[in-house]
Backbone:
């Protein structure tokens, strides 16, 4: 397709625009097999969906993100907001992900 400068991103509407992104100067293997690293001024953690505890590097869990890009809440729906965003303002995406030792994320 002659598309030499493609970057891959991950995000959801509630954390728009995106939370992670590959960069053109990343190793090719990381550019084609991951959704990149976390954007500046955002935080990501991968947690066990059952316990909420952070999982070790290389283990799958739920991707949670926090920062300026996370929505304030669902319009007139406190219950849905409370289910998605915890008291510490972590957005629980419901998506499973794995973080590698270089802090690149795979879905």
Residues:
């Amino acid at each position: 397709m002659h598309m030499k400068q493609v970057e891959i991103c991950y995000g959801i509407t509630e954390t728009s625009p995106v939370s992670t992104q590959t960069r053109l100067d990343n190793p090719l293997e990381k550019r084609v097999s991951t959704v990149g690293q976390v954007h500046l001024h955002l935080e990501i953690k991968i947690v066990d969906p059952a316990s909420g505890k952070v999982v070790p590097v290389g283990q799958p869990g739920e991707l949670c993100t926090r920062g300026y890009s996370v929505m304030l809440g669902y319009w007139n729906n406190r219950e849905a907001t409370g289910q998605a965003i915890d008291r510490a303002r972590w957005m629980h995406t419901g998506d499973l992900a794995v973080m590698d030792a270089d802090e690149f994320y795979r879905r």
Q: What stands out?
A: The two ends are 24 Å apart (CA to CA). Residues 78-84 form the longest helix (7 residues). The first strand starts at residue 9 and ends at 10. The mean pLDDT is 96.
